[in-house]
Amino acid sequence: LPPLTNSEHVSRVLYWRGRIHFSMGDHVKSEELLWQAIELAEKLDDRLLHATILTRLTSAISREGYPPRIIPLYEQLIRISEEENFPRYVALGQLGLARQSIRAGNVASARPRIESTITTSRADPDLNDFELDARNLLGILEVRLGDHEAARSAWMENLQKAKEYNSSFYIGQSLTNLGREEISHGDPGKAVEYWNEAYELLISLDKVRAAMLPGSNAAVALRESGRYLEAAALFEDLLATARKHHFTDREGAALI
């Protein structure tokens, strides 16, 4: 491979500095650095670097709640990635636009992007995570449309796919979403079952912080349904876990 030019080095340094600031929570500085990196990547006509920086830039901007200014960046990411055959980046851009549409209330335009991502991703094992993300988003879309049965169906199918792909994150997420749907529009007892399963799974995988949400949800649902002894036992477990791992922000939830 030919050696990198000075501009290529600078662009990559700006990109990595942007990523570091993002991981530190300084999204404003991250965006500033990533814009500088993109300008250099465009001048260099380095399409892979350009697309890679766009994924990080859109991630930084999405923290503002997917504002309209993110749309042309996702569209640019999709265009470059389709031309250069970067399928992961195409999927990322499509789902980003779908999320922006849902948040903006333009739900109808999100569906074809979600369904297209599901279709293309399930044919490629390297894109399993995008298929699961798209199926999860489909459930959210159905809730926004008020079709709770369709939402339940989408998340149930996502749960089965997540188990097939051995994706603990999406198993936990699907169970948590199913529990939320049952508590609002179904069977509270079933909601507790889903949340307990998610809690126990995530604890077993040492994903303790992620486990606190379904665990807290289950404890509250148990208390509200009059199952006080079970609720008290779970609240005690949650409080001990929060204190053991110094999750001071979660101690309050365990004391409710």
Describe the model:
This protein has 256 residues and is mostly helical. Helices cover 81% and strands 0% of the residues. It contains 13 helices and no strands. The protein has helices at 6-23, 27-44, 47-62, 71-84, 87-103, 107-121, 128-144, 148-164, 168-185, 188-204, 208-224, 228-244, 248-254. It starts with 5 loop residues before the first helix and ends with a helix.
Overall residue-averaged pLDDT value: 90
Q: Structural class given helices, strands, pairing? A: mainly alpha
List low-pLDDT spans. Answer: none
The number of helices is: 13
Order of helices and strands: HHHHHHHHHHHHH
The largest sheet, given as strand count, sense and whether it forms a barrel, is: none
Helix content: over 70%
Report the oligomer. single chain
Q: How much of the polypeptide forms β-strand, as a percent range?
A: under 5%
- Number of extended strands: 0
Gross morphology is globular
Radius of gyration: 21 Å
Would you spell out the secondary-structure blueprint of this structure?
Blueprint: H1 6-23, H2 27-44, H3 47-62, H4 71-84, H5 87-103, H6 107-121, H7 128-144, H8 148-164, H9 168-185, H10 188-204, H11 208-224, H12 228-244, H13 248-254
